Description:
The complex is a heterodimer.
Chain A: H1 2-12, E1 16-23, H2 30-37, E2 51-58, E3 61-68, E4 87-93, H3 100-112, E5 121-126, H4 136-142, E6 153-157, H5 166-176
Parallel strand pairs in A: 1-3, 1-4, 4-5, 5-6
Antiparallel strand pairs in A: 2-3
Chain B: H1 2-32, H2 36-43, H3 46-58, H4 63-67, H5 76-86, H6 96-123, H7 131-144, H8 169-172, H9 176-189, H10 191-202, H11 228-244, H12 249-255, H13 262-283, H14 291-307
Amino acid sequence: KGLLSILRKLKSAPDQEVRILLLGLDNAGKTTLLKQLASEDISHITPTQGFNIKSVQSQGFKLNVWDIGGQRKIRPYWRNYFENTDILIYVIDSADRKRFEETGQELAELLEEEKLSCVPVLIFANKQDLLTAAPASEIAEGLNLHTIRDRVWQIQSCSALTGEGVQDGMNWVCKNVNAKKK
Amino acid sequence: IPMFENMFISLWEFFYGNFFRYWMKWILRQMTGKCELQRIFDTYVGAQRTHRIENSLTSSKNKVLREATHVTQSEVDKCVEDIMKEKNINPEKDASFKICMKACLLQISGYKQLYADVENERKKPYDSDNLQHEKLLLKLWSLLMPKNKLKARISKQWADIGFQGDDPKTDFRGMGILGLIHLVYFSENYTAVAHQILSRSNHPKLGNTKVGYSFENCEVKYKMRYSYAIVGINLTEMAYSLLKSEALKFYLYNFVPGIPTMEHFHQFYCYLVYEFDKFWFEEEPESIMYFNLYREKFHEKIKRLLLDSNVAL
């Protein structure tokens, strides 16, 4: 009986569910990041048509991560996934300098969205394994991140390919899950 | 209770694999005067035969037999002779053994070689500095869009045939040059079907019939249309995974009497593209966003088909 009641108690205190939205341009590395988080094979990733979703247990949270395709044609659908988002993760290909402007614009538009207001945002400056990658500080400056006042934010350099920096970013996510400013 | 059941099963597997199997084989050998390989040839045909021969060879205690599954084409005749020597098979008493064994070995080692060849192509990333890669990419455009000229190598027009951005090279990703080879192969050999799929997947009307969401100004015409090129690359991934997981064995053993080649793999890819398109429009997904759901459903359907040892597609 003692064991049963312990089990029942464990069952009644489930992990807090967290809804994480993973956005960014096509080829930013969102799906690789998602698979890296779920410890899955990342060697044969293909472009995402539509979305992928995976649940990952981390630090007492159940992270439900939504990876939405980044191709221009389906960006209008992003907003269908805004509702009840706890954390926004925005992924940038740090080596694709030609598209910094485009990615900056998309991010700025996201931050204007009412349904995403006050949602903490983590920016992954991805692909740091590439020699041509811009450092996170340069990207932060280019995107004028310091002007964000209405929410907590963080930029984290990482390589979804090697996994470097990913855990640091996720630690920040877990710390700021409940930081939605009201 | 399940724990004991599991223990019993693993005990049984242990004794079966290590003792009973060999006793049974010995008893059968004494009764029939034939070895396991010969008995398989007597009883089975097609993929079942090759599959059973493969299992028998792989689990053999004899090194010559075990290594036979990796034999190269040029050494296959010698390998069959070695097996016959090891198993004391008299070529005059069992004339068909040599022919049957050779055919099976070519299929078995051919499958492994095919996977190695496919993996080799997959691992080659698309390289813009490689003239052949570039030529192949432009060929894809002219096959699919014979009437529209591509205005520049980097161009928004690529989206018209279903690439994501203005340079297709990033879309090949984990499938490498294999993804492009497949797209070109299908478009070249089934040009009419490719055009039909492309026009259907671009058709504003067909893409408009089911509107899942109510927001406006949101390019409604893209609702059901799928992106031809990146869906094609996704199907390359499906074909590749099926080959890798050995799910294609029954199909290839039935379909190809000798060594399966790249050509046969490409043909299977074409089958997937054709069937997926049919599946997609039959299922009437409410939005392109559900692609992965239907992809998985389709994948399960194909895997079920391939489980049948008599499979023919």
